Amino acid sequence: MKLRSVMAKLRGKGRDQVPTGLEASVIPDLPTVIRPNEGPMVVPDTEAAEVIARNLQGAANDLERLYYSHRGHLAFKWHHYLKVYDRYLGRYRNRPLRLLEIGVMDGGSLEIWRKYFGQEAVIFGIDISERCAAFDGHGGAVRIGDQSDTTFLEKTVLEMGGVDVVIDDGSHIASHQRASFRTLFPMLSPDGIYICEDVHTAYWEGWEGGLQRPGTFIERAKGIVDQMHGWYAPVPTSPADLDFLRSVQSVSFFDSMVIIEKGQKERPYAVAVR
Fold it and tell me: What is the rounded distance in angstroms from the CA atom of residue 81 to the CA atom of residue 252?
């Protein structure tokens, strides 16, 4: 994978300039390896074929097999995401499903989701880049618009007939992630799942991030965890927050991923038996 493709992936939303804060993290003599503070690595072109073959042979689940045997439009996912996706999304396979992926890039992930979920699934992708309209019909429907535009998101979900799974792989910019979550999480089906990818950008200045910086998706998710435990501590919570929190079943953190499961819950109680 060339540096241009990697930069496009990290930029998201078809931007023309790499946000500030990344340039110093690009190692000049290894242009396809990005190591912000020794963070995640993009496999160089010279090693990709060997890694793909090895991972295909050692695939632990169907999604890994589909990903590493994929032939079609370019797809780009961190390897460890595949196991997490299979764990949380496997229940939706070969049954009616409405999935919305924010960020189409080169269209490959929509093709892979179609293979994974089957023909019954309604799969939509959205992207701000007009060039992504060319991928409409390749695995799923593509709509062009801004992930922070509430009206556009609502219109897309209405066209889908509702939404069960949201995957935010869009700009990775904190304010955009918050805007999408604020609009889409309430629209999820009662047992839906919201996944935000690549949240390592929450630690990078160019994406409105920084360690423990208020407003990043990581900090928002941490706040939800605190509010979920409002039964036990004086956590500041508004009436609107209470309605929202009654619909949050769990918050799970993985390297660069946050997964929030929706589900109505009642006040916790304990029962002694013997």
Answer: 13
How would residue 169 be classed by pLDDT, with cut points 50, 70 and 90? very high
Do 143 and 163 form a contact (C-beta atoms < 8 A)? no
Q: What residues does each domain of the chain span? A: 3-262
Whole-model pTM: value is: 0.84
- CATH H-level, domain 3-262: superfamily: Vaccinia Virus protein VP39 (3.40.50.150)
Q: Are 126 and 156 in contact (CB under 8 A)?
A: yes
Q: In what order do the strands lie in the sheet with 188-197?
A: 141-144, 121-127, 97-102, 163-168, 188-197, 257-262, 248-254
Burial 60-96 (b: 16+ CB within 10 A, else e): eeebbbbbbebeebebebbeebbebbbebbeebeeee
Residues facing residue 81 across a β-bridge: none
49-60 pLDDT tens trace: 899 999 999 999
Q: Which two tokens stand for residue 264?
A: 């109505």
Neighbours of 45 (CB within 10 A): 11
CA distances to 42, 92, 139 from 38, rounded to whole Å, are 12, 35, 35
Percent of the chain with pLDDT over 90: 71
d(CA 109, CA 255): 20
State the average pLDDT for the chain: 86
Which of 172, 176, 200, 229 does the annotation list as catalytic?
Answer: 172
- Residue 66, SS3 per DSSP: helix
Tell me if residue 73 is catalytic: no
Residue 155, phi then psi, degrees to nearest 5: -65, -40
Q: 87, 109 in Cβ contact below 8 A?
A: no
H or E, element range at 23: none
